[in-house]
C-alpha cells in the first residue's frame, strides 16, 4: 500500500459532505444528516439512509443536521458522523490519515478548534484547514500561486460565500446565511401565500431543482406539487409554473447580489481590474438555479460562469491542494484574526 493514499480532503458542507481521497478522487458524497435515537442518544444512520427518514420517523428518532452555516453545531454527532464516513474510505492501517478540511472564510477561532477536534476524534493524525473559497477557486482551475484576483461565489445549502482570492489566500470576503435553504423556504412561503397549500422542504427543493429560474425561460416549465390544504387540512395538488417561481425566489437572490456588490466595493482597485478580466466564478448547488449567472452578469457587468461540476468544485479543489500538504500550516489558521492585524 502506498503511503500517499492516507491523505484525505473533506468538503464539510451544511447540506452535503464530500470526501476526496488522494490518488482516487471523490469517494463519498453524502448528505450531512444523522438519525439519532432521542432516548438513548445512539446514532442510527448517517447520510443518505438518514435523509430518507426526514419527516417520516417515529417520535423517538430524530434527524439532526450537525453542521449549520458551514460550522459545527453539534460536536458529538459531527465526530461520530465523520468517523463513520472516514471508515468507509480508509482501510485499516497503522498510519492515521492526514486530512484537509474546508471552512467558511467567516469562521471564528472557536469554530476552527471544534472542526479540528472533531476531525481528530474521528481518527485522523493531522488536520489542515483551507477556506472553502480558496478550494473552490482551485477547483475552478485558477492558478493560486500568482497574485491575480478571482471572485468566487459559492452558494451552498446553509451559507453563500463571496470571496476575492489571490495568491492562495482570501483578500476580501463576506459570508451570509442566505443560500440554498433560503430559496427552499421562499418557495414554501410563496406556495402557502399564493395557493394556500403547505408543502414540505423536500418538495420545495424538487421545485427549485426542477423548474425554478431567475430569468424567464424560453419554455415555461410546469410541475405538479402535492401538499396539505390549509383550509380543509386534506391533501391537495396544484400546478406551479416557472414564471411564478421567478417572483418567489427573487428576494434571496437580491440578498446575494447585494453581498457581491459589498465585497467588490471593499476590494483593492488592482484586484477589481483582475476580476473584470478573469470574470466571476459561481459554484455550489444554488448556482445551478437557471439564469443565476445571467443575473449576476447583468447586475455587475462582469462575465460570469458556473463551474462544470458546481456541487463538487470545492472538493476537487481541496483534493488538488493535497499535493501541497507538506507546505501548509497544520492546525488553526484563524483567518479573521490575521485580517484584524492587517487592519
SSE order:
EEEEEHEEEHEHEHEEEHEHEEHHHEHEHH
| Strands, count | 18
Strand content: 25-35%
Main β-sheet description: 5 strands, mixed
Classify the secondary structure makeup into a structural class: alpha+beta
Low-confidence stretches: 1-5, 339-343
Question: What is the terminal separation in angstroms?
Answer: 48 Å
Strand order of the largest sheet: 3-2-1-9-10
Offer a quick outline of the entry.
With 343 residues, the protein is of the alpha+beta class. The chain has twelve helices and 18 strands.
Explain what this protein looks like in three dimensions.
- With 343 residues, the chain is α+β, with helices and mostly antiparallel strands.
- It is 37% helix and 27% strand.
- The protein has helices spanning 48-51, 75-89, 109-121, 132-139, 180-195, 201-210, 242-248, 250-266, 269-278, 292-300, 313-321, 335-342, and strands spanning 7-12, 16-21, 25-31, 34-37, 43-46, 61-64, 67-68, 71-72, 98-103, 126-131, 150-155, 160-166, 169-176, 197-198, 222-229, 235-241, 280-283, 304-306.
- The strands form five sheets. The chain has a five-stranded mixed sheet with strand order 3-2-1-9-10, with helices on both faces. A five-stranded mixed sheet has the order 13-12-11-17-18, sandwiched between helices.
- A hairpin with a 2-residue loop joins strand 7 (67-68) and strand 8 (71-72).
- The longest helix is centred in the last third of the chain and has 17 residues, at 250-266.
Amino acid at each position: 500500500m502506498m503511503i500517499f493514499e492516507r491523505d484525505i480532503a473533506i468538503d464539510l458542507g451544511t447540506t452535503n459532505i464530500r470526501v476526496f481521497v488522494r490518488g482516487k478522487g471523490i469517494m463519498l458524497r453524502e448528505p450531512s444528516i444523522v438519525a439519532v435515537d432521542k432516548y438513548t442518544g445512539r446514532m442510527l444512520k448517517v447520510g443518505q439512509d438518514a435523509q430518507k427518514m426526514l419527516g417520516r420517523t417515529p417520535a423517538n428518532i430524530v434527524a439532526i443536521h450537525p453542521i449549520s452555516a458551514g460550522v459545527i453545531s453539534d460536536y458529538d454527532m459531527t465526530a461520530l458522523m465523520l468517523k463513520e464516513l472516514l471508515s468507509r474510505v480508509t482501510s485499516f492501517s497503522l498510519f492515521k490519515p492526514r486530512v484537509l478540511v474546508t471552512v467558511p472564510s467567516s469562521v471564528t477561532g472557536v469554530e476552527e478548534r471544534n472542526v479540528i477536534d472533531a476531525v481528530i476524534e474521528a481518527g485522523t493524525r493531522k488536520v489542515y484547514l483551507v477556506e472553502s473559497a480558496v478550494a473552490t477557486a482551485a477547483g475552478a482551475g485558477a492558478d493560486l500561486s500568482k497574485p491575480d484576483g478571482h471572485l468566487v461565489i459559492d452558494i451552498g445549502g446553509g451559507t453563500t460565500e463571496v470571496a476575492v482570492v489571490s495568491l492562495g489566500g482570501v483578500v476580501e470576503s463576506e459570508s451570509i446565511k442566505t443560500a440554498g435553504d433560503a430559496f427552499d423556504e421562499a418557495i414554501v412561503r410563496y406556495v402557502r401565500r399564493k395557493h394556500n397549500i403547505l408543502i414540505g422542504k423536500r418538495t420545495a427543493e424538487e421545485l427549485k431543482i426542477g423548474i425554478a429560474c431567475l430569468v424567464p425561460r424560453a419554455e415555461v416549465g410546469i410541475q405538479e406539487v402535492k401538499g396539505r390544504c390549509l383550509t380543509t387540512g386534506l391533501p391537495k395538488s396544484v400546478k406551479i409554473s416557472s414564471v411564478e417561481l421567478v417572483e418567489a425566489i427573487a428576494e434571496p437572490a437580491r440578498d446575494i447580489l447585494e453581498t457581491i456588490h459589498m465585497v467588490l466595493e471593499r476590494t483593492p482597485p488592482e484586484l477589481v481590474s483582475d476580476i473584470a478580466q478573469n470574470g466571476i466564478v459561481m459554484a455550489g448547488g444554488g448556482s445551478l438555479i437557471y439564469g443565476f449567472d445571467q443575473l449576476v452578469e447583468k447586475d455587475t457587468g462582469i462575465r460570469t460562469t458556473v463551474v462544470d461540476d458546481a456541487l463538487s468544485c470545492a472538493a476537487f479543489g481541496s483534493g488538488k491542494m493535497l499535493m501541497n500538504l507538506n507546505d501548509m500550516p497544520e492546525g488553526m489558521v484563524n483567518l479573521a484574526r490575521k485580517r484584524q492585524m492587517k487592519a
